[in-house]
Amino acid sequence: MESKNFYITTPIYYVNGDPHVGSAYTTIAADVMARYKRTMGYDVYFLTGTDEHGQKVEETAKAKGMTPQEWTDLMAPRFVEMWKALNIKNDDFIRTTEERHKKAVKKILQTVYEKGDIYKGEYEGKYCVSCETFVPENQIVGEDQCPDCGKKLRMVKEESYFFRMSKYQDALLKHIDEHPDFILPRSRRNEVISFIKQGLQDLSISRNTFEWGIPIEFAPGHITYVWFDALTNYLTAVGYENNPEEFQKRWENGEVVHLLGKDIVRFHAIIWPCMLLSAGVKLPDKIVAHGWWTSEGEKMSKSKGNVVAPLEEVKKYGVDAFRYYLLREVSFGNDGDYSTKAIVTRINSDLANDLGNLLNRTLGMYKKYFGEEIVKTGEYEAIDLEAQKLFDEILVQVEDMMSRLEFSRALETIWKFISRMNKYIDETTPWLLIKDESKKERLATVMNMLVESLYKVAVLVAPYMPEAGQKIWNQLGYNDDIEKALVENIKPWNILEVGHKLGNASPIFPRLEVEKEVKEKNPVNKDLKIENPINIDEFSKVEIKVVEILEADKVEGSDKLLKFKVNDGKNIRQIVSGIAKYYPEYKELVGKKVLAVVNLEPVVLRGELSQGMLLSSEEKKRIKLVEVDSSVKVGSKIK
Ligand code: MSP
Hints:
This protein is 41% helix and 18% strand. It is an alpha/beta fold. Strands 1, 2, 3, 4, 8, 12 and 13 form a 7-stranded parallel sheet that branches. Strands 16, 17, 18, 19, 22 and 25 form a 6-stranded antiparallel sheet that branches. The chain has a 4-stranded antiparallel sheet with strand order 6-5-7-9. A hairpin with a 4-residue loop joins β5 and β6 (133-135). The mean pLDDT is 94.
């Protein structure tokens, strides 16, 4: 019997930065899949969460002046909030710093250890902190750079425990061979096969030169390699360590699907299955990799300022349009380019024109011809039966496509039906039928076909656009929760009740002007109020220069003050500044070029002469000196 338990996961996201369009993409795709499976009657478990250990997070926390725990406690809720704003309905949110997870990691490590698959050795080689990955010599690119992210690699030489991954090479190849849908899409599957065929190396799974990780019981002084820790989250959440019944139901007897980006396929399709083979746990059913998004034709990067911020897009276009666009625009698996022009075009043509018009025209005509209540349907004619047949076919096709996570094709298929029904209006010409009293019953059948089509379409689009699905239902006069609807119940035709009252119509997707949207990507606030204005003469009284810090010292008897000797291009002067608290490592400031006001009247602070003021920025009580690019000349004036 086919299992009706469906378990879907996203990668757990690193908390070194805020969620962005990449993490939003996987999470939305998983949410759509989870919602779709619920409408298909599955018992769904949808997991997402945060990956909180490792060197990268430890270093980010340090740079922010916090402990890793403080930092992760600050960041994890930002993911929860973002998912709420994107209408993500996950059943669980896992954080790898939780107790339940630490116990699960301990269990899998112990099991693999007892199997004889872990041995002690020494790791010597290169490591990419950004990808949290060991990079073998033959994969290094450029000048010691990571082949995936291009960042500079670090040398690591430390005692380490190794996992005998090489032992599972043949078993894994066999599994991939026997399960053609194990790794999707095909291109990724082939890539994984050829990688394994080059020969799997044993994997270093412990670190002992930093502390932010899960300690290993049989290896004192060592913490778990962050990927070994992170991958285990998929087991933790379904009771691997603490709930055998749940584990049986969701993992062993359920369908397990992992969604992830193409950059982390090897971790999921090689390391993870080997870990499970060693631990004696069933392998997941599908590992599905999606492509990467660029923005307006370029790689996203903070310095270019072209990072797509999901919440801003949602503010502009609405959460449904954003979700729809991401999944409709590119085939899952391919790379895609996020552009304002493309999203606006999709909104106008697919949502406002095709779907929106079908709804508006139908409700408008129904109310005009029959009033607000559903009238009786007559005999179906050939054109009606043909549309119904198309709908049946579409349901089968959508099911097939969704089983391979082909979101874009599934939407295209649903839209075939929407277009068909728009054409149906033009072909059945209700505005002519109304003029002939003998065609009243025919008109009723035609109009009911349209209302019923929309009722069904709402259920099919709701996983992608939960709000729009609900709004369509409400406008058709159905106030039940569309999330509880089942595809099974929309299969038969003639399901409208005579006398059912239609709701109020209003456009769900207003049309947008492409030109205006493209131009207004970064709209200027023309109503900006300038507070405490000054004129240019007043400003030019303040003389600001680039100075170089030559010496930095504490002011004796003060916790707050530091004194700096700086070169202003002409003289060496001393400046005292109240920033000691923010710069415990103040000696590191020597050699930096910063900005200073050089025409302030000199003062004496705690017995030290101060001949100017260093400029600093203040954000949330954190003070930072304003540094300038090292290429700027000392003594340059700021105008
Ligand atoms: N913590 C690991 C995953 C551990 S899972 C056991 C990790 N985290 S991540 O935050 O760096 O990345 C999460 C996901 O975001 C990856 O699937 C990655 O592919 C995806 N994306 C990051 N940038 C992206 C784009 N520009 N476009 C699409 N997805 C991208 O890796």
